[in-house]
Design goal:
Blueprint (H helix, E strand, L loop, with lengths): L4 E6 L6 H14 L3 E4 L17 H11 L4 E4 L2 E2 L5 H15 L5 E4 L4 H7 L6 H21 L10 E4 L6 H8 L2 E5 L2 H18 L7 E6 L1 H6 L1 H6 L4 E6 L6 H12 L1
Parallel strand pairs: 1-2, 1-9, 2-3, 4-5, 5-6, 6-7, 7-8, 8-9
């Protein structure tokens, strides 16, 4: 296994744009490997009507305002945007960043976003089928865009479902993200590897990432690595204290 990569997810809730911008600039200066936001329209916890910002607009700002970290949404809800439009948005942001974008995608789950913004909230299997269809349209649109994406733009899929979700990852993704305790992560990682074998995919071609929250999970970083994680992403809420990220970077360097 190569060097462990460290990222940070900045939660775009209960904050100001000035504080978000300060946080992503500090993270980039710190030398993190990646900076992420989520893709929702309302807070996921705390005051449900608290301040919140749209993810892809934030990523475009980060792309222009950072220099080294890779960037992305972890993960975009597939059915919030026309897939051909999303491909063009991602290509454009990739150019702004100089080729540093991940295209993170998932089938979606937060019902309030759908209801408030007028999107049909279909069943889980229907949303998964829509994701597969969109992946085909996105890759086809990439081939038509002039100019094409600058960077490799890996497609990251967020998934944990063992019968369908992880099979979709094995068939389509360059990177995978999920969360949970190390034991659960190890199990899901093994299921993904099994799906790779079944569909004829080299398991080593999918980057294994994990989102962790809180000091307890941070202190278990070696367990996540033993479970197969190659890229550990620390979720940070306002006021965006990056000390846990810096501490993890130091621990990983020290071994």
């Amino acid at each position: 296994m190569g060097a462990i990569r460290i990222g940070v997810q900045l939660q775009p809730q209960h904050t100001s744009m000035a504080d978000l911008r300060d946080a992503w600039q500090r993270a980039d200066t710190l030398g993190v490997d990646s900076i992420w936001v989520w893709d929702h329209f309302y807070p996921l916890y705390g005051d449900p009507d608290g301040a919140h910002f749209e993810g892809w607009s934030i990523i475009a700002g980060m792309a222009a305002d950072t220099r080294t970290a890779k960037l992305g949404a972890m993960v975009s809800c597939n059915t919030y945007r026309n897939p051909d439009l999303l491909a063009d948005m991602a290509r454009t942001v990739d150019h702004i960043s100089g080729g540093r974008l991940y295209l993170g995608l998932g089938s979606g789950w937060f019902e309030r976003d759908y209801v408030e913004y007028g999107y049909p909230f279909t069943t889980g299997p229907e949303r998964q089928a829509a994701l597969v269809e969109s992946l085909g349209r996105i890759t086809a649109r990439f081939a038509k865009l002039n100019p094409p994406p600058l960077g490799p733009m890996p497609i990251m899929l967020g998934a944990s479902g063992e019968r369908v979700g992880l099979r979709i990852v094995a068939e389509h993704a360059d990177a995978w993200n999920t969360f949970g305790l190390p034991e659960l992560y190890a199990h899901k990682n093994a299921v993904l590897t099994d799906w790779c074998v079944k569909v004829g995919r080299d398991p080593a071609t999918i980057e294994r990432t994990v989102l962790i929250m809180g000091d307890e999970q941070l202190d278990q970083w070696r367990d996540y690595v033993a479970a197969g994680a190659e890229h550990i992403i620390v979720g940070v809420d306002h006021p965006f204290d990056l000390e846990p990220v810096e501490r993890l970077m130091g621990a990983v360097r020290a071994g």
